[in-house]
Amino acid sequence: TEIYTEQIVGSVRCVQETVIGFYPPIENFLFYLLVMIVLSFNGNSLGIMAGCMFNDIRVAMAVTPTLIIPFMLFGGFFLNRDNYPVWLGWLEWLSPFRYAQESLVMNEFESYNAGAISFLSYDFGKWESLGLLVILGVVYRVVGLSLIHI
After folding, report:
1. Residues 124-141: pLDDT tens digits?
2. What is the largest CA-CA distance in the chain?
């Protein structure tokens, strides 16, 4: 049933892409799908890492939101870099949400000379962010798999 759910969500997203009126070229839509696939890999890697940290599955399930919520908080959805203390800034660089959001915003708005990109103070382009997202997912996966033997 999980595969069917992902297919339904993907189909709904394809319809939304057209109805909402995102930037129309097919390359942008395919890049969006690529970012979503890599972000899904990151979520899977974080789940493996959290699951391998603990021997008891109940503890792992209780701790996983504690790991994910700071990534969401410092990923750029809720707080911009200027809105949180400098000493917490390192969490931004560990968040897969940060790189996914940057690559998707750049994908959507780079053809417009929108002030949103400069306001958000992004550091990378869409392809660089996607590459860093892949690297981050691999790192989380390797850390998780290395924790199995501990």
Report:
1. 888 999 999 999 999 999
2. 51
Picking from 96, 56, 49, 102, the residue whose alpha carbon sits closest to that of residue 80 is: 102
What is the DSSP secondary structure assignment for residue 87, as one 8-state letter? G
CB 94 within 8 A of CB 136: yes
**How far are the Cα atoms of 3, 19, 29, 56, 76 from residue 15, in angstroms, in the given order?**
19, 6, 11, 41, 26
- Tell me the C-alpha distance between 52 and 9, whole Å: 29
Q: Packing angle between helix 126-146 and helix 26-53, nearest 10 degrees?
A: 20
Mean pLDDT, the chain, whole residue set: 80
Write the CA distances from 32 to 62, 66, 111, 127, integer angstroms.
31, 28, 15, 11
What is the C-alpha separation between 119 and 87, in angstroms, rounded? Answer: 21
| DSSP per position, 99-114 | HHHHHHHHHHHTTTT-
